[in-house]
Design a protein that fits this description.
The structure holds 2 protein chains of 2 kinds.
Chain A: E1 5-9, H1 10-21, E2 25-28, H2 35-44, E3 51-54, H3 58-69, E4 75-79, H4 81-97, E5 101-105, H5 124-129, E6 139-140, H6 145-162, E7 165-168, H7 172-176, E8 178-182, E9 227-229, H8 243-258, H9 261-264, E10 267-270, E11 277-281, H10 283-298, E12 303-308, E13 310-312, H11 316-323, E14 328-333, H12 338-346, E15 353-357, H13 366-376
Parallel strand pairs in A: 2-3, 2-4, 4-5, 5-7, 6-7, 11-12, 11-14, 14-15
Antiparallel strand pairs in A: 1-8, 6-13, 10-12
Helix pairs in contact in A: 1-2, 1-6, 3-4, 10-13
Chain B: H1 24-38, E1 45-49, E2 64-67, H2 73-83, E3 88-94, H3 95-101, H4 103-112, E4 117-122, E5 125-126, E6 132-133, H5 157-164, E7 168-173, H6 177-189, E8 194-199, H7 203-207, H8 215-225, E9 226-228, H9 229-233, E10 244-251, H10 257-268
Parallel strand pairs in B: 1-2, 1-3, 3-4, 4-8, 7-8, 9-10
Antiparallel strand pairs in B: 5-6, 7-10
Classes of the chains: A alpha/beta, B alpha/beta.
């Protein structure tokens, strides 16, 4: 049987990716340019017995999401910059309480209300540092409608596997562009469910490290009684200020992601092997970069594209290795140098990192990248 | 035989954090008796709170307990209830948590009429942070941030709940301990969003600043201002000056949110229109 093919908007693909992953609960608040995710799920979730709720505000949506996840459901919310700022409170809660959830954040201009309908890539630092305190961060940055579907499925897998919030951040162009998408068959993409406890309720502890860095999470209403708090906690879930426990638990929460970077990180290297100039890009900007790399090659410039698919955790070791063989990096991005700074931070000064920055609501044009390549090669 | 509270208390989690003379423990005992009266199963009951002294209550209860962020109890609880409507969901918290930072979630939970019970322990102050004025602090009262007397008017929390659409609203006091479990039990049994405001005392951060010489004086004050709704019917407005009505203040039957959403699912799946 032929696979189902459709002409879909990125945001719609994210919603369908969530359904493929087994999402059964969505809580959100209307915000441009992500609203289509909510609209599609308001129609589709009840068809599969799932629940959709439009909450009173962004904070409440993130809170309801965590509550629903604690009953064992796979959960999603969608938002954009101003909403992401508001959601940070409870994103931190989900980090410390270790509650799986997925946040689609369609990037628009900022800070504040900024440019609601303009594309941007300026929320990537907010994905890592937005909520206060030390915490793990996973952020995916797809570049096409097909990839937005597939990465949404992967976002759910990572959230459930590592018991932590996962952000998927298409820029507004990826969120709103329409492309051909081939729906994967059921079973074609891996779908991971959270690990259920193997011990009976009376022995259960929600942060029991005898099961490793990612202890199984029981569901409320399944016979297991346990406590969940946003305070620093012990293995039984109750608050503590005991220094040795707080230190160990904080380190474990971050280690869940750091020690599993190889599983979480994902990138594409296009013509990088012999490249003198490597463009590090993500989202819609990587599409301009690929065009520029192809043009450059035609003109005899050894250019390559390093396309980030996972932004956090960042592939520091791989870029450090590449920095020893290139003459320069270029980071085109729709912000004032966020990715540029991260690249500089991991290549130990081995090569210059040139930026091309747009915060004017305009995408980065391939010619701008090509011109920069000629300048620095 | 004396009532066995231990059945509902989490082993090893007492003593509680509350100061001597605080009414929160009286409310917790009332809640336990109510849960026992109604016959809720502990493993099928979620107790959800925000931040503050009153919000520490869930930790002592041997149920599914969720101590959330400041003001967010109603929103977290809405997620729990909507995802698993067969669970009993009880919210607890203080006046500042529920009506200031959590005010938006509170009024919208009332509006949706989602089947949960919210117990608000109103001691008129932010106790945990040392006695700052809350939206329930009376005008003129002293707090750590109103050294010259509070310029703000106070919320009538029960009226706020009724206005926002809660379908069961009751009020009791920490003094009238034996009434608390009855009000909470009736609230739990009500289908829809129910609010039970319990006027409470904070001797440490409110009483001392406002010339209450003892906990007994604060309790006597609660005793004196409370007027049962039935008794109030026979009183003049002059006689009711400075009094607070107690008992079941409001009750109505309205469609409940999870049941309404079940109909959405039915329609989406091509069932009843």
């Amino acid at each position: 049987m032929a696979k189902k093919v459709a002409f879909l908007q990125g945001n719609e693909a994210a919603a369908h990716g969530a359904l493929y992953a087994g999402c059964k609960f969505f809580a959100g608040y209307p915000i441009t340019p992500s609203t289509e995710v909510a609209e599609v799920l308001s129609a589709e979730l009840p068809k599969v017995g799932g629940k959709f709720i439009q909450m009173e505000d962004e904070i409440g949506a993130m809170a309801a999401l965590i509550g629903a996840s604690l009953t064992g459901l796979k959960v999603l919310t969608s938002t954009s910059g101003p909403g992401l700022s508001l959601k940070q409170e409870n994103i931190g809660y989900a980090c410390i309480a270790e509650v799986p959830c997925v946040i689609v954040n369609v990037m628009r201009g900022g800070p504040s209300t900024g440019m609601p309908t303009g594309p941007s890539q300026s929320d990537i630092m907010c994905a890592k540092w937005g909520t206060h305190g030390d915490h793990p961060a996973i952020c995916l940055v797809p570049a096409s409608v097909q990839e937005l579907f597939e990465e949404t499925v992967r976002a759910f897998n990572l959230a459930e596997k590592y018991r932590t919030p996962v952000m998927i951040m298409p820029d507004e162009i990826v969120g709103h562009m329409r492309e051909r998408i081939v729906f994967p068959e059921p079973g074609e993409l891996e779908v991971i469910d959270r690990t259920a406890p193997s011990v009976p309720p009376e022995q259960y502890k929600p942060y029991d490290t005898q099961f490793g860095d990612i202890p199984p999470l029981a569901a409320f209403g399944s016979g297991y009684k346990f406590h969940v708090t946003g305070l620093n906690k012990m293995q039984d879930g109750f608050p503590t200020t005991k220094a040795s426990i707080v230190q160990a638990e904080e380190e474990r929460q971050v280690r869940k992601v750091e020690a599993n970077k190889a599983d979480i990180m994902k990138w594409e290297e296009y013509l990088c092997d012999d490249a003198d100039v490597i463009v590090v890009a993500f989202g819609s900007t990587s599409r301009s970069a690929r065009f520029a790399v192809n043009e450059a090659r035609k003109q005899g410039i050894k250019a390559g594209l390093f396309r980030l698919i996972t932004f956090w955790p960042f592939p520091e070791e791989r870029l450090l290795a590449l920095s020893k063989q290139v003459k320069a990096f270029i980071t085109p991005e729709m912000n004032l140098g966020m990715c540029n700074g991260v690249v500089k931070g991991c290549i130990e000064g081995n090569a210059p990192v040139h930026g091309i920055y747009h915060v004017d609501g305009e995408p980065v044009n391939p010619n701008e990248i090509l011109d920069k390549m000629k300048e620095v090669k | 035989m004396a009532f066995d509270y231990d059945k509902y208390i989490r082993p090893g989690k007492l003593p509680h954090i509350w100061c001597p003379g605080c009414g929160h423990g009286i409310v917790m005992k009332g809640l336990i008796r109510a849960i026992d009266t109604v016959g809720l199963k502990k493993e099928n009951t979620a107790i959800v709170s925000g931040i503050g002294c009153a919000s520490r209550l869930p930790g002592y209860m041997d149920c599914c307990t969720l101590h959330t962020a400041h003001g967010r109890a109603a929103a977290f609880a809405t997620g729990v209830k909507m995802a698993k409507p067969e669970m009993n969901v009880i919210l607890v918290g203080g006046d500042g948590d529920g009506t200031a930072i959590g005010g938006n979630h509170f009024i919208h939970a009332c509006r949706r009429n989602i089947d949960m019970t919210y117990i608000i322990m109103n001691n008129k102050i932010y106790g945990m942070t040392g006695g700052q004025f809350s939206p329930a602090t009376p005008t003129g009262a002293k707090a750590s941030t109103t050294p010259y007397g509070n310029p703000d008017p106070a919320f009538d929390i029960a009226k706020l709940a009724i206005g926002a659409g809660a379908t069961f609203v009751a009020r009791g006091t920490a003094y009238h301990a034996t009434q608390i479990d009855k009000l909470i039990a009736e609230a739990i049994q009500h289908k829809g969003f129910s609010v039970v405001e319990i006027l409470d005392d904070c001797p440490t951060t409110y009483g001392r600043r406002n010339k209450y010489k003892s906990v007994i004086e604060m309790m006597n004050h609660l005793k004196e201002v409370a007027v049962p709704v039935k008794a109030a019917e026979k009183m003049t407005s002059e006689q009711l000056q400075g009094k607070v009505l107690t008992g079941v203040l409001y009750k109505e039957d309205k469609p409940e949110y999870c049941e309404q959403y079940a109909k959405v699912i039915e329609r989406a799946q091509g069932g009843a229109k």
